[in-house]
Amino acid sequence: MLSRRDLIKTAAGGVTLAALPAGLKVAFGATGAPLLVVVFLRGAADTLSLVAPSGNAEYQAARPTLAIPASGTAAGLPVAGQLNGQSFRLHPSATGLAALYEAGQLAIVQATGLVSTNRSHFQSQDMMEKGQADGEQAPSTGWLARHLASTAVSGHVPILAAASEAPVALLGEMRAVSMTTPSGFRVSGDNVQNLSHFREWWLLLE
C-alpha cells in the first residue's frame, strides 16, 4: 500500500504518477472520461512549511527553527502572485509542485479548512469526510459519495479506494471497490468470462 510519506515525496519531487512505488502505476480509463483523485492526508500536512509566507516577520519569529527562508541556500521556491499582499514560497524540496504550478496545472487554495470548536483529531477527520460543520447533524453518507451520486458516474469499476476498506468519505456508495494492492484483488463467482474491461482500472499492476 502506498504510504502517505511516499506519496508526498513522489509528488514533491516531480516524479510522475506512472512511477509510483510498490509496483503500482496510474492508468486513465480508455474512454477519456474525467478522473477524480482524492488524497486525504490523515496525518495532516504542515502547510506553513509546504506553502510558506517566508517574507512575513511574524511567521519567521514564530518559527525560529522551522520557518522556510526567503533567501539563502535553503530558500523556498517562489510562487507567483500574492494573497492580501503576502507572497509565498513552496518548500525547497517541492520542485515537482513548483513545476506544475508554473505550468498552470496546480492551484493552491490558502486559508481553507474545518472551522470547529472541538480539538479531537478523530472527530475532525470524521466531520471532514462526511462534509459536516459545527452545529449540523451528522450526515449518514460521506461527502464524496454524495458528489458521485450527483454526477452519475458509470463504468465497470467506477470508484476505487486504495485501502482495505472504503473511507468514510465514500460511506453510502455501494459501487466502491477497495483494495490495498491490485495483486490482492480477486473476482469470484460463476459469471466471470470476460475481464478485458478491467483494463480500465485506475491502478494496474506493472
Euclidean distance between termini CA atoms: 14 Å
What structural class do helix, strand and pairing data support?
alpha+beta
Looking at the structure, what is the overall shape?
globular
- How large is the share of residues in beta strands? 5-15%
Alpha carbon gyration radius: 20 Å
Number of strands: 7
Mean pLDDT: 77
Largest sheet: 3 strands, antiparallel
Sheet with most strands: strand arrangement:
2-4-3
Tally the helices: 6
* Uncertain regions spanning at least 5 consecutive residues: 13-29, 190-206
Q: How many structural domains can be distinguished in the coordinates?
A: 2
Oligomer: single chain
Helix content class = 10-25%
H and E order: HEHEHEEHHHEEE
Question: Please, could you describe this protein's structure?
Answer:
- The protein is α+β, with helices and mostly antiparallel strands and 206 residues long.
- It has 2 domains: 1-45 and 119-206, no CATH class; 46-112, no CATH class.
- It contains 6 helices and 7 strands, in the order H-E-H-E-H-E-E-H-H-H-E-E-E.
- It has helices at 4-12, 47-50, 57-62, 95-102, 121-130, 143-151, and strands at residues 24-26, 51-52, 77-83, 86-90, 159-161, 176-178, 203-205.
- The strands form 3 sheets. Strands 2-4-3 form a 3-stranded antiparallel β-sheet. The chain has a two-stranded antiparallel sheet with strand order 1-7.
- A hairpin with a 2-residue loop joins strand 3 and strand 4 (86-90).
- It starts with a helix and ends with a strand.
- 13% of the residues are buried.
- The model is unreliable at 13-29 and 190-206 (pLDDT under 50).
